[in-house]
Design brief:
There is one protein chain. By secondary structure, this protein is an alpha+beta fold. It has helices spanning 12-17, 55-61, 79-87, 94-105, 111-124, 128-139, 167-176, 195-199, 209-219, 234-245, 250-263, 284-300, 322-333, 339-355, 364-373, 376-387, 421-430, 465-474; strands spanning 7-11, 25-30, 33-42, 51-53, 70-73, 153-157, 181-185, 221-225, 268-275, 304-311, 319-320, 404-409, 414-419, 440-443, 450-451, 456-462, 481-483, 490-491. α12 links the parallel β9 (268-275) and β10. α4 packs parallel to α6 and α17 (421-430) runs antiparallel to α18.
Length: 492
């Protein structure tokens, strides 16, 4: 039985005889090995005298079918008292958060108990002190990168903007400037591509913490998948509970982000907070609120943070989907490509150069732009691609973009009022992205553009006809382009 948890199934009569109940904890011993498990009971799955174990338990104990095990009572997790304390509205101490994280990592808490903990933090919120304590506890749950070099810089984007691949332009600019940027990135959850998915078109993104260290020390930067390097590992367990419940407590969000930054040794961090219709933050007040919290908590953790509130109402770049976004990135690194991707990347990179004292205040954007224009950023990117197992000579036209296309055109002269980030991403996913690297959407317009009847608004790109057809049908319910006096563009 697969579960991803330490669970043991006891026969219902055996459990009653031993005074063991559903969700109790027991120690399962086999030889010199033992595992603490959460109890499930059944009179159908296991017979009297039998014990059912999930595969995680079986692997840890080295069990085979018909092996004998010993079942022992254990005390209930101390964390349950702390979770109840938080539910009652009291602040938890650093030691209490460390205990909860430790017992979560030991699989001593059930999903119901973890859900109660996250719900309590959602309802009761966290003080600044609690957020710092939770962050420190999360850092201790996983690996920590120690470069022994300075300065180490990092960035984060709060998300919601389609095609926003600034990381892949920023990292080589920063590396070319001689700073160290060990960038871990995520895969797509609801978007058409995450940074790790896009970078994977060019090179491997799955590395151990030691491999990551070697790449950064030799090349001043990397772009790797954060899920492979085990940073703030407890966060993955929290996310599995948070996402289905749509729970996003601000303190937990801050701790999740900053724990990963602290885990890579970041001393200076830029936080990009896009604001606008369709972005994670749709109003300026919320953006300023979380920006202040980032700066406050970051300083308590020994990091200097700066938050840039940017326009998140429109996609960045023209390509939406792994290979299409890679095309945009490489074109920008060649001093071509989408101007918005270039400008925003240089703004963010420039802010990092300024905050760590590499350049004078107000000179960051110009220096970042020069590193891009001179070709030094592209040279740095090619070194990173090679270090991560890719082809350093790769060109934009080498991108494996899908051959099947469908154009959506304007049915009248008009002006673009809005390009919906979420719906554009949905269409890209319906065409096969990010699993199909060559699938996605190519935008031919952006907010404020004037278009004439017959102009292309966007193209759907797929790797096969069936997925293209599926995406075309999705247009019946998804209209990502809002135009003056026009509801939907004509399709052909």
């Amino acid at each position: 039985m697969e579960s991803g948890k330490n669970i043991v199934v006891l026969n219902e009569n055996d459990a009653k005889t031993e005074d063991i109940y559903l969700s109790d904890r027991v120690e399962v011993r086999h030889g010199r090995k033992s595992v603490t498990c959460i109890v499930d009971v059944s009179d159908a799955m296991v017979k009297k005298g039998e014990v059912g174990v999930f595969s995680d338990v079986s692997r840890q104990l080295g069990l085979k079918c018909n092996d004998q095990v010993e079942i022992l009572h254990v005390q209930r997790p101390v964390s349950l008292d702390y979770i109840k304390k938080k539910m009652d509205g009291f602040a938890l101490t650093g030691g209490e958060y460390k205990t909860i994280v430790k017992e979560t990592m030991a699989n001593s808490l059930s999903e119901i108990e973890l859900a109660s903990f996250l719900t309590a933090m959602y309802v009761r919120d966290l003080t600044t002190e609690e957020t710092v304590s939770l962050t420190d506890a999360m850092v201790s749950s996983g690996s920590v990168l120690k470069l022994g070099k300075h300065p180490v810089v990092d960035k984060h984007c709060s998300g919601g903007v389609a095609g926003n691949r600034t990381t892949m332009v920023m990292v080589p600019i920063i590396a070319a400037a001689g700073l160290y940027m060990p960038k871990t990135s995520s895969r797509a959850i609801t978007s058409a591509s995450g940074t790790a998915d896009t970078m994977e078109v060019l090179a491997d993104v799955t590395f151990s913490i030691d491999e990551m260290r070697d790449i950064v020390l030799k090349n001043h930067g990397c772009i790797v998948w954060g899920g492979a390097v085990n940073l703030a590992a407890v966060d993955d367990k929290f996310i599995r509970i948070r996402h289905p419940l749509r729970l996003d407590p601000q303190g937990v969000l801050l701790a999740s982000i900053l724990a990963k930054k602290k885990s890579v040794g970041a001393e200076y961090v830029i936080i990009d907070i896009p604001v606008g219709r369709g972005a994670k933050f749709e109003n300026m007040a919320d953006a300023k609120n979380i920006a202040n919290d980032f700066i406050s908590v970051g300083s308590r953790l020994g990091m200097k943070l700066e938050c840039l509130i940017s326009d998140g109402s429109d996609p960045i770049g023209m390509g939406i989907g792994p290979a299409l976004e890679c095309y945009d990135v490489l074109k920008v690194l060649e001093n071509d490509g989408p101007a918005d991707l270039k400008d925003k990347s240089c703004q963010l990179a420039g802010a990092l150069l300024e905050i760590c004292g590499k350049v004078q205040k107000g000179r960051g954007f110009a220096v970042a732009s020069e590193l891009l224009a001179s070709g030094k950023a592209m040279k740095a990117m090619r070194k990173i691609i090679e270090a991560q197992g890719g082809d350093p000579k790769v060109k934009p036209d080498d991108m494996p973009i899908g051959k099947y296309r469908y154009s959506v055109i304007a049915e009248a002269d008009s002006k673009i009022q809005h390009v919906d980030n979420s719906l554009i991403s949905n269409i890209g996913r319906s065409a096969g992205a990010p699993r199909d690297r060559g699938a996605g959407v190519i935008l031919h317009c952006e907010y404020g553009d004037k278009v004439k009847k017959g102009d292309k608004l966007f193209e759907i790109v797929a790797e096969n006809e069936s997925k293209l057809d599926f995406a075309i049908k999705a247009l019946e319910r998804w209209n990502p382009i809002q135009m003056q006096n026009v509801i939907i563009g004509k399709v052909k």
